[in-house]
Each structure stands twice: as structure tokens, then as C-alpha cells.
Specification:
By secondary structure, the chain is α+β, with helices and mostly antiparallel strands. The strands form two sheets. A five-stranded antiparallel beta sheet has the order 2-1-7-6-5. A two-stranded antiparallel ribbon has the order 3-4. It contains 15 helices and seven strands. The structure holds glutamine (GLN). The site of glutamine (GLN) has 11 residues, from loops. It catalyses: L-glutamine + H2O = L-glutamate + NH4(+). It is an enzyme of class 3 (hydrolase).
């Protein structure tokens, strides 16, 4: 079984190398690698050491092809991208009704770490801001911190197809400096939105943010969601198919921090970003995109990552609400036979 999937992956990689789409991605990479705007996150020293020039773009299809250019193997911390996937696990653990009674799905237009709850219901606004993410993490079932963490890591392994580690210095710094998140957690405890095991849950939240991934992992995670929850290469189910649309919906409305409205308007691909420099983006039924480039704009989104997704959406008509036939047909470009022969 393992050998077969390795062979399939090898075969698809070979095909991907020969594809005109690969040339397209290479051009994108060349076009944006010199962009030096933005700044690497520096709220903890471990993030500030990220190399601003690191840049990787990976696209994985629902049938298991992988296209990558640039640095797709360097590891960085997943940070807020974890929130979308842990939300999926909470839905599996408790069902939609319960989860929604504790965490709403309304965009805030505020910064991800805002200390704000819905005035009427006292719920955090959505699972993509820190408040909602901490409440979501609190819901993850398991006997004690070790089992709960293992369930989260096992889930990410199903999405990526490989075992993931935690960057311990990042975790310890997040914990040492995380008083704002602690304040948010206590506010939610006051309103009975989370259970009274704050230290354990915050440790779990800081650990999930400190998981190490590369841009290929982010593309596989997105491709798994695009493939209704089944990893396209291992064929393992990562999330109950019933909850895939819940996760993708909140990515669309809330995934890019307080840039989510403009992102949906300009790009129209459900996505989630993290301050480690990653973006994971899902085109349902078709592809997952993973990008890595540490310099962030003032809202905390990767500057080069935004440009890459914008161009992919525009050039291949991937905006969710685009009804027109795109100039370039994505699948034709991937499979090596663009109709206009334009590569
Ligand atoms: N660990 C960060 C925090 O909780 C998450 C940052 C992010 O990617 N937005 O503040």
C-alpha cells in the first residue's frame, strides 16, 4: 500500500515536472521573489529569525498531482492556519449545534487577537480569531493534555500524509508571552464559553500553533479539503465529509484576518493564513494551494502569498463566483495540452 502510493506520487511528480503549469508557477515565482514588502513577524524572537527571502509555491490536485516551485520543504510554524483544521476536529467531536452554541461564524473585521465577544450571546465571533480558536481547542476531546495533543497531531498527519513535529522553542515563547490569549480565555471562562482547564487548553493552543509544516503540507491539507476530506495521495479520510463545507465556509468569510472581505472580493478562494508566513487555499473539487513566504503585511498575511493566489485566481478563473470561461483552463495546463498552445 505504502509503496503503491509512493509510486503514484512519483509518477504524478514526473508528470508535474513536464507540465506547462509548472512553467507557469516558475514564472510566478520569478516575478514575485524580488518583492521585499512586508515584515517578518517578530512578536517572539523565534519567528523573527525566519528568512525573508524564503519563498515556496505548491499546488496539489484532488487526483494526487503535485506541482512545486521554490522552497517547498523548509519548515515553518503553522500558526493560525491550524485553527481551521482544529475547528473541523471539534465539529467531529461535538457536532455542529454544540460547536455553534460556543463559537459563532460571523466575521469580525477586527484583528485576530482582539479581546471581543458577541455582546448578546457572549460567544467568540468565529473560529479563526484567537478567541474562537481557543474555544475550539478547548472542545477537543481526550484524556488529559497528552491524548488531546496526540489527537490533534494525528489529525494533521491524516491531512498531510506525514508525521509532524512541534517547534518547542516557539511553543515555549508563545506560552511565555501569551498573556493576551490568557486574558481572552479568562473572559470566555467568565461567560461559560470554555471549561475551567485554561492552562491545559492554552498549552494545547500554543502547541497547535507551533506545529512545523512546509508549503507542500499546506497544499496537501487544502487538497484534502478540496477532495471532500480524503487525502488525494494516501486516500486516508482526514475529516468527516459532513463537516468539510463548514471548515471551508469559515475560511472564506474569516480566514484572512481582517482582510477577509477584500480577499474574497479580489481572490475568491477560501483560504487561511498564519503569521509564520503560510497560506493554505482550497478550490473545492479541484486543487489545494500552499504558499510560504515570511514577510507579512500589516494585517498579518504573507505579501507574496497574496500575490500568488491573486494571480492564480485571475489567470485560471478560480474565483468562486467567476462564471465566465477562463482564458486559461487549469486542468489543460496541468495535463500538458493548453488549447491555445500558449506556453
Ligand atoms: N500564535 C499566535 C497567537 O495566538 C497565532 C498567530 C497567528 O497566526 N495569527 O497570537
Amino acid at each position: 500500500m505504502v509503496e503503491t502510493s509512493n509510486l503514484e506520487s512519483l509518477a504524478s511528480s514526473i508528470q508535474a515536472v513536464a507540465s506547462p503549469f509548472r512553467g507557469y508557477l516558475q514564472d510566478l515565482y520569478e516575478q514575485y521573489k524580488g518583492v521585499m514588502d512586508g515584515a517578518v513577524a517578530d512578536y517572539i524572537p523565534e519567528l523573527a529569525i525566519a528568512k525573508p527571502e524564503s519563498f515556496g509555491i505548491c499546488v496539489a490536485t484532488v487526483d494526487g498531482q503535485v506541482f512545486e516551485v521554490g522552497d517547498c520543504t523548509s519548515l515553518f510554524t503553522i500558526q493560525s492556519i491550524s485553527k481551521a483544521f482544529v475547528y473541523g476536529l471539534a465539529l467531529e467531536d461535538h457536532g455542529r449545534e454544540y460547536v455553534n452554541s460556543k463559537v459563532s461564524v460571523e466575521p469580525t473585521g477586527e484583528a485576530f487577537n482582539a479581546i471581543v465577544l458577541d455582546e448578546k450571546t457572549n460567544r467568540p465571533y468565529n473560529p479563526m480569531v484567537n478567541a474562537g480558536a481557543i474555544a475550539t481547542t478547548d472542545m477537543i476531546k481526550g484524556k488529559g493534555s497528552t491524548e488531546r495533543l496526540k489527537r490533534i497531531l494525528d489529525m494533521f498527519k491524516r491531512y498531510t500524509g506525514r508525521e509532524l513535529d512541534i517547534n518547542v522553542p516557539v511553543f515555549l515563547s508563545e506560552r511565555a508571552t501569551g498573556n493576551r490569549n490568557r486574558a481572552i480565555a479568562y473572559l470566555m471562562l467568565n461567560f461559560d464559553m470554555i471549561t475551567n482547564r485554561i492552562d491545559e487548553t492554552l498549552d494545547l493552543y500554543f502547541q497547535q500553533c507551533s506545529i512545523l509544516v512546509n508549503s507542500r503540507d499546506l497544499a496537501m491539507m487544502a487538497a484534502t479539503l478540496a477532495n471532500n476530506g480524503v487525502n488525494p495521495i494516501t486516500q486516508e479520510r482526514a475529516i468527516d465529509g459532513r463537516y468539510v463545507q463548514d471548515v471551508i465556509s469559515v475560511m472564506l468569510t474569516c480566514g484572512m484576518y481582517d482582510y477577509s472581505g477584500e480577499w474574497t472580493y479580489r481572490v475568491g478562494i477560501p483560504a487561511k493564513s498564519g503569521v509564520g508566513g503560510g497560506i493554505t487555499a482550497v478550490v473545492p473539487g479541484r486543487i489545494g494551494i500552499g504558499t510560504f513566504s515570511p514577510p507579512l503585511d500589516e494585517k498579518g498575511n504573507s505579501v507574496r502569498g497574496i500575490k500568488v493566489c491573486e494571480d492564480l485566481a485571475k489567470d485560471f478563473g478560480l474565483h468562486l463566483f467567476n462564471g465566465a470561461k477562463p482564458d486559461r483552463d487549469l486542468e489543460e495546463w496541468m495535463n500538458g495540452r493548453p488549447a491555445d498552445g500558449a506556453w
